Amino acid sequence: MAFRSFRPFPGVWHIQDAMGVCMTLLAGRDLALLVDTGYGAEDIGAYVRALTDRPLTVMLTHGHHDHALGSRWFSEVYLLPEDFPVYTTYTGDFWRRDVWGRGREFADERFLTDPMPPALPLAEGDMDLGALTARIIPCPGHTPGSAVVYVPEYKLLLTGDNWNPCTWLFFREALSARDYRANVERLLALPFEKALCAHQFQMYDRDMPESLWRGITDEALSAAVPSEAGQRVGAETRQVFLPKEQVFVFDWQKFMRGRGRA
Fold first, then answer.
1. 175 and 112 in contact (C-beta within 8 Å)?
2. Exposed (0-12), middle (13-18) or buried (19+): which is 143, by Cβ within 10 Å?
3. Is 46 helix (H, G, I), strand (E, B) or coil?
4. Checking CA distances to 57, which of 11, 174, 224, 228 falls within 20 to 30 Å?
C-alpha cells in the first residue's frame, strides 16, 4: 500500500494516501478515532488496524469525495447530519468515476461498485478515547456540515478543509465567505497551538490558520482577483493572497449577495 504517516504526538498519526489527501488517527488508551478516510483507492482500514488495535470509530469532517470515498473500507461512518446530502452526492457514481479516472493505478474496479456504509449522526462534544480527548466542533463553511476536531491534551486542531494553506470555498454547498469567516472566528477562542489539515503532509503552528482567518476581511475580499478554480463546478471564483504564501479562493457571487447583510 502507498500510505505514509508520521506521528507528531503519542497516539496521533497523520496519514497520507496514494492520491495525496490526508486523514488523522487518534488512538487513546481505550478507543481510537479515524478522522476522514481519504480517496479510498487502497484499504485504509487495513492500514489503520496495523497502527492500533483499539476499537475504532470513523468520522468525516465533511462529505466530499476526497474525504469520504475511503469509507467503503468500513462498516459505518459518522458525520454531522447537515452533510448527509453532501456524502450521498460525493460518494455517488459521478465522483467515483472522476476519482477512478485519476487514480486507477492504485484502485481495482471494485472502487466503482463497492457499497458505501451508512452515514450516522455525529454528536458534538467530547469523545473520551482514554487519556486522549477528541472534541467535535461543528464549523459550517467549506460545507454546511463541516466539523473540526480539537485535541486539548496536545492543543492540536484538526481543520479538515475549513483550513488548508490553499483554502477553497466555492463548491455549490459551500457557505458564503462572510458566513465562513464568522464560524471560523470562533475557533480562534480555542487555545490550539498546532494544526493538521487535510491537504498537507506536515504540522503547522497556530499562526498559519490564524493569519488566513484574520486576513479575509471585507476589504481583502472586495479586492480579490479573478481565479479559474471554480469553473468546473460553475462558480465565479476570486482569490485572496495572504501571509505565508496562503491563498483563499471563494465564490464571488455568494460574497456579493451577502455584502448588504448586517
1. no
2. buried
3. helix
4. 174
